[in-house]
Amino acid sequence: MNAADPIIKIRHINKYFGSFKALDDVSLDVAVGEKVVVLGPSGSGKSTLLRTINRLETISSGSIIVDGHDLYDPDEDINRIRMELGMVFQNFNLFRHKTVLENLTLAPIKLKKMDRGMAEEMAYELLDKVGIRDRANHYPIQLSGGQQQRVAIARALAMEPKIMLFDEPTSALDPEMIGEVLEVMITLAREGMTMVVVTHEMGFAREVADQVVFMDGGAIVEEASPDSFFDHPVHARTRLFLDQIL
Amino acid sequence: MSDQEKKIEIGDGAAIPDPEDKGLISAWWIALVGTVSLLIILPLLKPDPYARILSFVPDGILVTFKVTIASISLALVIGLLTGLGRLSKNRFINLIASLYVEIVRGVPLLVQLFYIYFALGRIVRVPDIVAAVIAMAFCYGAYMGEVFRAGIKSIDHGQTEASLSLGFNRRQTMAYVVLPQAWRTILPPVGNEFIALLKDTSLVSILAVADILRRGREYASESFNYFETYTMIALIYLLITLVLSRLIANMEHRLSHYERR
Ligand SMILES: Nc1ncnc2c1ncn2[C@@H]1O[C@H](COP(=O)(O)OP(=O)(O)OP(=O)(O)O)[C@@H](O)[C@H]1O
Ligand SMILES: [Mg+2]
């Protein structure tokens, strides 16, 4: 794989839930360090697309290659590939029975065989980065939504992934907590992380995205830089969506 | 306390007391004080036969505990496997597990005990107590399977997805993420089953196993003090289940620590 090769290559994927077509001939490239923001109305297939990238959702046809690994090659170990892909969920999904610190150290200790001291040291660094070191020994239920989501980002980063996937990371938050999570994501973006983000935060999309992807009805309708996407949308459905949301 | 407050109601165990209920006047306290008083006062007032009965049954208590502990341990293992089997996407495994549960549910425990005891006796020669344990575990494993299944299903699928997305495989996800959380939902009904099982071990007295009830029957048939003997037997069972139910309630309380703010 040479450096210019995209780290995510999605080629003509289709996805059916029963007879319902959730993804319709979707192709997408993501380059190393690139930030892709996926927009679209509810039910357009944004989550489904994102979840196919780490195979939480399987595809019906097409191919997905992540960092040179074909997700559907039977010789590939999907669990190894997933270690390269951090994922952040709308509902945080922190492990409820583990403290904040344990949430961060569980996977590095068990999967990377990191010794506890090292894992905790790294965990504290990450907690500093997301600004909640003082909550290290709390349980998730004792944190606000914004804090939980920042921990969830730190948990994903603890595996040192090459790519981060975000599925509406701020949609379940009270408005006053959205900023603190976006801030962490912007920092991450500045550091050069490859990111695919499903969101309704247009400000974030404009500021951070290298590429905006607009989906409707399971298909990618428009792909553009944020400036041309927001200022000169080509497709009628894109304009309709932007009119409704802005 | 919101969506996590999922309780599984299965079986007919003794009532588990609420550890938050600090009131001295509760049914549990009255029952405990009454039971202990009778167990002390009766033998003092009338040593013959009450004190004699008390000195006759301790080996039986030991046997009852042995059968109970061994059966519940085995039943937990069978239950976990059955629960996982019932949730398995593999049709064959799923069918086997479901079939097992259906059969056990449809046949009375006493009949199962006789059946396994004599069927087993035809194949291998095992001590009576081992046959009894296998029979009890076979039956209770099916109920435990349902408890495990419900407990595992009560855990939000998001927990599994988060674990998989980190790179854990299905087995690791079950072991590190799902089961430790499911355990909290599983414990109360397991506690109920434990107490129900302890009481049901009285059935093995029929299989020549010298548990509390059998020791009592032996004493009664020699002395003809039927009423007195069964009074003491009932009080002993009651004391054991009362203490156990409180222990389980405390354990349950401790296990819920991460759900408290
Ligand atoms: N497991 C499933 N079974 C059946 N249909 C599903 C399943 N998951 C998603 N769908 C359907 O697929 C379509 C796309 O869903 P998806 O969750 O990807 O939409 P989305 O763009 O993320 O929407 P939202 O903004 O509401 O999150 C929807 O119509 C949804 O109902
Ligand atoms: Mg979605």
Please tag this protein with its features.
heterodimer, A: 246 residues, alpha/beta, six-stranded mixed beta sheet, four-stranded antiparallel beta sheet, 9 helices, 10 strands, globular, B: 261 residues, mainly alpha, MetI-like fold, 10 helices, 76% helix, 0% strand, disordered N terminus, binds adenosine-5'-triphosphate, binds magnesium ion
Tell me what the structure shows.
The complex is a heterodimer of chains A (246) and B (261). Chain A has 246 residues and is an alpha/beta fold. Helix content of chain A is 37%, strand content 24%. Chain A has helices spanning 46-52, 78-83, 100-111, 116-129, 145-157, 175-190, 202-208, 226-231, 236-245, and strands at residues 8-17, 20-30, 35-39, 61-66, 69-70, 85-88, 163-167, 194-198, 211-216, 219-224. In chain A, strand 4 and strand 5 (69-70) form a beta hairpin. The longest helix of chain A is centred in the C-terminal third of the chain and has 16 residues, at 175-190. Chain B is mainly alpha-helical. In chain B, helix 3 (58-87) crosses helix 6 (128-153). Chain B is flat, with a radius of gyration of 21 Å. The termini of chain B are close together. Chain A binds chain B through residues 54, 56, 79-80, 82-83, 85-87, 89, 91, 93-98, 106-107, 110-111, 139, 141-142, 152, 155-156, 159, and chain B through 4, 156, 158-159, 161-169, 172, 176-177, 180-181, 184, 258-261.
Q: What would you say about this model in short?
A:
Chain A has 246 residues and is an alpha/beta fold. Chain A has helices at residues 46-52, 78-83, 100-111, 116-129, 145-157, 175-190, 202-208, 226-231, 236-245, and strands at residues 8-17, 20-30, 35-39, 61-66, 69-70, 85-88, 163-167, 194-198, 211-216, 219-224. The mean pLDDT of chain A is 95.
Nearest-integer average pLDDT of chain A: 95
Low-confidence stretches of chain B: 1-5
Largest sheet of chain B: none
pLDDT under 50 segments of chain A (min length 5)? none
The span between the termini of chain B is 9 Å
Give the bound compounds.
adenosine-5'-triphosphate, magnesium ion
Computed Rg of chain A: 18 Å
The percent range for helix content of chain B is: over 70%
Largest sheet of chain A: 6 strands, mixed
N- to C-terminal separation of chain A? 40 Å
What is CATH's topology name of chain B? MetI-like fold
Top-tier CATH class of chain B: Mainly Alpha
Mean pLDDT across all residues of chain B, rounded? 87
